[in-house]
Each structure stands twice: as C-alpha cells, then as structure tokens.
Design goal:
With about 270 residues, this protein is mainly β. It has a single domain, classed as Sandwich (Jelly Rolls), CATH 2.60.120.200. Helix content is about 10%, strand content about 35%. The chain contains 4 helices and 19 strands. The strands form 2 sheets. Strands 1, 2, 3, 5, 6, 8, 13, 14, 15, 16, 17 and 19 form a 12-stranded antiparallel β-sheet that branches. Strands 4-7-18-9-10-11-12 form a 7-stranded antiparallel β-sheet, with no helix packed on it. β13 and β14 form a beta hairpin. It is globular, with a radius of gyration of 17 Å. About 50% of the residues are buried.
Amino acid sequence: MNTLRTSLLAAACAVTAPLASAITIDFETASGYTTGVLSGKPSTGTQWALTNGGTNVVNVAAGVGVGGSQGIAGTGTGSGSNFVYYGFNTTNADLGATFDANSSIVDYSFAWRPTQAFGTSNSQSIFSFSIGSDTATGSNAALRLDIRSSGRLIALDGTTNQAVDGLFTLNTYATISGQINYATNTYTLFVNGVQQFTSISGGNLAFNNAASNNAFIRIGNLGGATADYRTWNADNIIVAIPEPSAFAALAGLGALGFAASRRRRRA
C-alpha cells in the first residue's frame, strides 16, 4: 500500500509550515512492490499500468533505490525505438486531499540517476516524467519533463522547450522537485534544491497543456535498445497538496527537493 504522509512538508521546510497531504511512492516491499515488471504494482490499492506500448521496459529492482533500497530501473529492451508510458492514477484517497484542477497547488519530487554514460543526442529523450497527463502519452500534462540521451533536461512549457545541461552525474541520484499551480497554470522546477530557468517568467513555466485536469503521474521510457538509449533508475516519487494557508509560504521554495536531498545524505 502506498504511504500517505500528512507531515511531509513539516519535515521538508527549514521553517515550521502547516501540514500537507501527500502520497509517497517508494517502490519498497513494505508498500506492496515486488521485484519484476512495474505494471500491476503495488499489490493493493491504486496500481501502475501500461498506458501505451505493449512491452514492459521498466522494472522494480532491489538495490537500485535511494540508499540501496528498491527503486525502478529503465531497461533498453522492448518496443523498438518507441516510448512506453506507465500511469499511476493519483486519486483523492491516495493524496489524502481533494484535488481541484482550477485551484490546487501541487508539490512534486522524485529522485533520478543515469546508470549508463550519456551519449551525444540532444534530440532523443530517454526518460519522461509528467503530472496531470492524459491516459496515453502525457500530451495533456500540467508538468512534463524529459531527459535526453545527452543528459539534457527539457521542460516542455506549452510553446517552447526550455533546456539545461550538466545537471546529472553517472550513478548519482539527483532530486528533481518543484510546485505546480493549477490556478495560474504554471510550475517551478528545482534540481538538487537549485531553481532552473530562473530568468524565464520569474522561474514559473507554463503548463505543457492547459487542458490538464487531474494529478495523474506518467513515466515514460525509451523502449528499444537503440544507439541513443541509456539506462536509468528512479525512486521516491512524492506528490503533495499543501493546506491552503501554506501556499504563500511554500511557493518557490522547492521544499520537497530540500527534504529529499536531506534524506539522501542521511542514507
């Protein structure tokens, strides 16, 4: 069962903040995740499902998570050169709060690392993460982030792709985090606690598609063992809805990234 943590943001901030409702997807045995294909896990409650592509290319594996725990691993086998997407329908019961597509503030965080040396392609994505996507490929995402074969991080903001290089180190977890504001149709992006794209709209990126209407998590993996493919690991996906009184205090702080970085240092 995925763990609901009502004290997440109290631990995430350096100052005292009101509590939030959250879901943490940690891929651990205690949460109902067994090693093997990601689809159909955890054992109870909301489960991951393939949303396009018929071949599994993401596995739950031991020893690949933050601190040597279980995490997920992208593999280079499967559906040719096509992307394969996995969806997790974050319900209100999962979040412990009511999601509102017109007004909710959503904090997000996850850990990601490359496990194969990067290539040279700045055009071929090897990994994709989105929230608020449709049930297929993530085209209606509020937030969509892609990592290219070269290691370039791309934020798709609805009109142009914002890019930043040099953020990831082989076999070292980075924490990607930020906040999605469904009232303003913008989001922020931090890597290891440092806000990216700070000169663009004050650091707030527009929705990839303003038609987004849910908090559905989507992970995409390049499915084929092509020249551009690179393996990766991910762990500790956190999605939180702060209490309304916490919105102003938490905006722009990247609190979840700070908390995840502290957990990683202690591990």
